[in-house]
């Protein structure tokens, strides 16, 4: 089992920045893929970003490329999502997830409870 706890969400004005954190505990194998997803009210959950725990490969949704950066701290079993130039359309609940397979955009196995990000115009 893997436990994931997100933090860092909040209210920010358009153009501002936030950094989300996701602390993993339990069976944190190094070949896990860590991902960020988001779900806005009335919309389906969508992929935001992912990275491989050991190899450092990353993938981003087109809507966040150049604005969001995902990183990791292996010693702390924590991944981060630095979000810059935030837009009102970035408003959503952001979820951290783990994929046991080395696939950046596959089916994820474990999910956190999410953290709310609200961007005001």
Please give a handful of descriptors for the protein shown.
11 strands; 121 residues; 53% strand; four-stranded antiparallel sheet; seven-stranded mixed sheet; mainly beta
Question: What can you see in these coordinates?
Answer:
Helix content is 0%, strand content 53%. By secondary structure, it is an all-beta fold. Strands 2, 4, 5, 6, 9, 10 and 11 form a seven-stranded mixed sheet that branches. A four-stranded antiparallel sheet has the order 1-3-8-7, with no helix packed on it. It is globular. The mean pLDDT is 93.
Summarize, please.
The protein is 0% helix and 53% strand. It has strands at residues 2-7, 10-13, 18-26, 33-39, 46-52, 58-60, 68-73, 78-83, 92-99, 110-111, 115-120.
